[in-house]
Fold:
Amino acid sequence: MRIKRNEQQVYLLETALAIAVILLASFLYSFTPSIKSYYMAAVLGVLLVVAIVRFGFRRDKHYLKNYVSRIVVACLMVTFIVSFGLGLFLNFTHSSFSLNPHVILSGFLPTLLISCEAEVFQYVIFHSYFRNLRPVAIFVVTIAATNILISTNFSSFASSEAVFVTICTVILPVLATELLCSYLSYKIGLRPALIYKLSVRLYPFVLPILPNLGPFIYAVMAISLPAAIFLFTYNLHVANRKDQKRIRRRNQMIITTPIVFVLLAVVILVSGIFKYQIIAIASNSMDPTFARGDAVILEKTSADKIAENDILVFKHEGIIITHRVTQIYTENDRLYFVTRGDNNEEVDAFRTDESQVIGRVVIINKYIGYPTVWLSELFKTE
Structure:
């Protein structure tokens, strides 16, 4: 009787949540994301209190929760490192929250509340009884609908391109996240689910720049990450205690390898040991091609392979300069280059000879050079 009574009350709570989502879709859809978020945070807060009072809060005692939490953190690290590594070649963009404290506060707080409340609410419901998976499915669908409604607006479906972008950047990531968190909460415990959801929901608020991967690659990574965590966790969960040691060693190797590979590639790029090197831009002389705070990847090459209109990287009086080549001429069997910044009206007053040439710019990365520029300016002022 207690199981049946609990089941009925779970359905009542989920019905109340579904009604709140319907109201959000019907009457609050044209409001700002902040208002919609605070509305759902208040609803989830009330329902969570009711659920805890009625069902209690069972401690998370699963013996795999700590190891699965480490898997989640490791997979998140791999994904962030790989995505920022791809950003070196695909470019970066400013976070829409990075330069606006008001937007950070108005977005960060409700997102934090909704994420925490939803996961705890889900955990309490899932562990109030173990009769069937229907309440799990209902809750996943309802919370996914909530996050999609908060993140979209009328313009999200104004054209076929907008629909495609919305599906890739909102709908698919939300569904993948909710499915994974529900599995982790139901099979393992609250901690790994909460770590994952807070990480993927909150990082855009705290990072000043983000990789501009495009909707398709973003969707692939947003689906691949929870899929990988699920496979690692599922294989570990269904295995017996003896096989778990072998699976843990395999998981560690699979997770560690891409981290080492990407970090090694970044070190090689920064150090300039091989043909390509990344450098930060400290002035606006080449604006709008690139500007202060951007970074460029240069290809080291000999002077005779430089052509007019290439962006030359050379050293002048101990300073590395990146300006466009406007003229090349030979004098006394030596090549000389006339250069000019795209933002300058006149050509440079000096001429660059072939011994000063470092290479030419091949890839431009927006914003990623800011940390290097800031550190350089900090040390100059001391």
The domain at 276-381 is CATH 2.10.109.10 (Umud Fragment, subunit A). The two ends are 74 Å apart (CA to CA). The chain is about 60% helix and 15% strand.
